[in-house]
Specification:
Layout lengths: L1 E2 L3 E5 L5 E11 L6 E6 L2 H4 L4 E7 L5 E8 L3 E6 L6 E5 L2 H9 L5 H6 L15 H7 L3 H24 L4
Amino acid sequence: KQWYQRRVAITAGGQLWNDQEGTVTITNHATGQKACLFFQPYKTTKHYTKIKGEVYDIDGNVVIQIKGDWTSHFQYKHVDSETWTDVWTLETDILEEKKKYWGFSPFSLQLNEPLEGIAPTDSRLRPDQRELEHGRVEEAAEEKLRLEELQRGRRKANKNANPQ
């Protein structure tokens, strides 16, 4: 199987989002079938997670159409049918919860929880990370700047140190 990468743009300023844009082509070299998924750009849809696509048989004929939102649901239908079939749908309450936490699901956020006995340098202990996870964006940015300034100071001190 073969995948072609699409362009990914991470946009900052106000609300953060990851803009997936472009076409991914998936080829099954054993059968000759392929699928093309088009990640629609925000600039044309005003929605940054829309996707549509088609599956082709070995003769290049479209046999299945795909549509959806890569964060919440996918549907497909055979070209000779009017009925769309759900591939998967995310629970609505999870989607609403994700909006509060930068698009991360509650499960994803739990993966970043600090564990007892981790190294003091573990990134899960960074105060700016904690602020961001709690939705305090400005405080997280200020804390990150403070940490970076401390790090620059340590580097400068180490560079100027005279090893003996």
